[in-house]
């Protein structure tokens, strides 16, 4: 298992080329979440947009494959990431 920083984890997620990845993090309310997600999903997008910029809050908008809805990944509290058959542990 490789150890990476939060910035490296974000880069791996963005460079994932629309493939499915797993991410583990602590939500804003303190609960633990394990998410199977994808980026750049067009399903259900109405073109309205968000009322805030997720990048400013260190969030990544991803499509949760299990819930079938868009969710935010809190990059401040990342624990682990699995992408392209590699598992990473995040430490800062």
Name the features:
92 residues; mainly beta; SH3 type barrels; 7-stranded mixed β-sheet; 1 helix; globular
Describe the secondary-structure layout.
Layout: E1 2-4, H1 6-14, E2 21-26, E3 32-38, E4 59-64, E5 69-74, E6 78-83, E7 86-90
Parallel strand pairs: 1-7
Antiparallel strand pairs: 2-3, 2-6, 3-4, 4-5, 6-7
Give an overview of the whole structure:
The chain is mainly β and 92 residues long. It has one domain: SH3 type barrels, CATH 2.30.30. The protein is 10% helix and 42% strand. It is built from 1 helix and 7 strands; from the N terminus they run E-H-E-E-E-E-E-E. The protein has a 7-stranded mixed beta sheet with strand order 1-7-6-2-3-4-5. Strand 2 and strand 3 form a beta hairpin. It is globular and about 40 Å long. The relative contact order is 0.33. The mean pLDDT is 85.
């Amino acid at each position: 298992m490789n150890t990476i920083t939060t910035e490296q984890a974000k880069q791996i997620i963005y460079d994932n080329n629309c493939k499915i990845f797993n991410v583990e993090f602590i939500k804003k309310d303190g609960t633990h979440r394990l998410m199977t997600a994808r980026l750049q999903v067009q399903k259900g997008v109405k073109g309205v947009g968000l009322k805030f910029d997720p990048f400013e809050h260190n969030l990544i908008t991803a499509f949760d494959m299990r819930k079938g809805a868009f969710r935010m990944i809190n990059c401040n509290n990342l624990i682990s990431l699995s992408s392209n058959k590699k598992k990473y542990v995040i430490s800062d």
